[in-house]
Amino acid sequence: MADIFLSYANEDHEVARALAEILKSAGWTVWWDRRIPAGRQWHSVLDEALSDARCMIVLWSAHSVKSPWVVEEAEEGRRRRVKLVPVQIASVQPPLAFRLFQSVDLTDWDRSSTAPSVQHLIADLKSILEEPAHKAAPAPPPSYSPRASESYSEPEPVRPSSAPGGGGVTSMVRETAAVMAGAVKSAIDLLRPSRYRTKPSSGSAGAEPPRSASVSEPVLFGIAAPRAAAPSASFTARFAAYIAAARTAAQEHLEKLGEKDDRIVMDIPPDRQPRWRIGAPVTIRLTGEHVTIMPGERNFEWNGRENLASFAVQVNADAPQVTLQLCFHVFLGPVPIAFIPLGVAISAHASDPQTPGLEVRAPSSVFASYSSKDAEPVTRSLSTLTRWAPTLDIFQECLDLMTNDAFKPQLAKEIAARDVFLLFWSRNASASKWVLWEFQTAQVKPGLNAILPMPLEDPAIAPPPPGFEDKHLRDRFMIAGYGLQKIAETVRKQP
To answer: How confident is the model at residue 171 (pLDDT cuts 50, 70, 90)?
Structure first.
């Protein structure tokens, strides 16, 4: 098929086209055209396109971070162990499950092939895709099985005996059952502490290594999810397996992948098998009613210290206002060893406790974002604001930018450092690429809850910015202003 699978939102088609052409000119084949042949289904096309891909590029933008298709493609590529190369084409945060990946920054890309950021991307791809042909294949990971009798693998298919009196179907069933029972027994035996493990038969080669070389300390679990969520809302549920020495790091990772007020439960012991061999196969399955979970399960090999698994959860639009139970099922090989429920309250106003964050503590610093065409009314508003809050530190671009310094890094630094981002919104602002860039930058830090829209025109004239469509942005003073303006126009028209 293709060397590179290019994942993107339909709204970013032109950017994807430009990047695909540059990658093709570098000598690689690229799958990027989303047109589906007649008679084919998307998932079969996706499966075929990923089957031979050695690398997946994901274009993260304001559109793709909200696209379930892009997230699904990225998850499927990661599940298949395809090398993932995130590329940001806008100043947005990728979904939580992908924030630990190092991204290539193309936010300022002018779509030329000579841009330094594009050349850096091509260099990275060469290191991934153009390994020397004579290079030896990487050795398989060290086996966690010191003896053949303890290895954990899927049994080969059992075929019916062709010899006379072989038993036909009945014999095949017996043989299949015996093989499956042996595999489960071997897996359980493998995952026990060494003092309970079956001793090798006299024909086994080699002595068993010390347990400390292959079996970790007792394993504990940590789980995290929001305390509440609204119908149609999305959030991330997380799971961590760790030893006591890695507890702090595990908790920090669970916090980093979620939101500030999420519930985090630590130090949950497994129901059985507390000690795991390094390299042991672990499966985490997440279930729950009234939600859609993607992916349904995650797999990893125990590294002896800390492993994480995260799930994207979408609450159904018709979910009742109850406390739903998310259930983490933990399997060691084929053996279930833990069942951990965590309640999440479904409420129509689940996010309300977080929204008044600006009122809990009076802000001390503000960044004012506006179109230069609205400078006069914005300046009047800021003047009024300083009269009521004389100690408030207000950053206004035309007054506070440092001379001779690059302005964009300055703005990004100031936006991140301020308590509140005042977004003076109008038709002029919605058409300004700089206002939109500042708005996108503020969504990353200080965050969406710190953005305060300041409408200069009625929402019917200037629709609210993305993310604030459901907010009431009309006030009585604005209505009075339009009324007085209408009266003045009527008076001027009178003879």
So the answer is: very low
- By residue range, what is the domain housing residue 185? 148-200
Residue 269: Cβ within 10 Å count: 11
State both tokens at 321. 């206002």
Q: Which amino acid is at 396?
A: Q
How far apart, in Å, are the Cα atoms of 223 and each of 229, 250, 307, 351? 17, 10, 12, 21
pLDDT at 247: 93
Question: Is 402 inside a domain boundary?
Answer: yes
Could you tell me if 254 and 309 are in contact, meaning their C-beta atoms sit under 8 angstroms apart? no
| Domain end among 200, 231, 261 | 200
CA angle 175, 177, 183 (to 5 degrees): 105
Q: Which of 26, 35, 73 is nearest to 53 (CA)?
A: 73
Cα 413 to Cα 266: distance, rounded to the nearest angstrom: 35
Among candidate residues 346, 377, 401, the one where a domain is terminated: 346
Among 182-186, 205-209, 389-393, the range of highest mean pLDDT: 389-393
- Mind listing the pLDDT tens digit for each residue in 394-416? 887 665 555 545 677 888 888 88
- For residue 366, the tally of other CB atoms under 10 A from its CB is 21
* Cα–Cα dist 403/408, whole Å: 13
| SS3 label, residue 143 | coil
Is 87:121 a contact under the CB 8 Å cutoff? yes
The reply to whether 446 falls in a domain is yes
Question: Do 410 and 474 belong to one domain?
Answer: yes
Answer whether residue 137 is part of any domain: no
* The amino acid at 481: G
* Global confidence as pTM: 0.34
What proportion of the chain, given as a percentage, has pLDDT over 70? 70
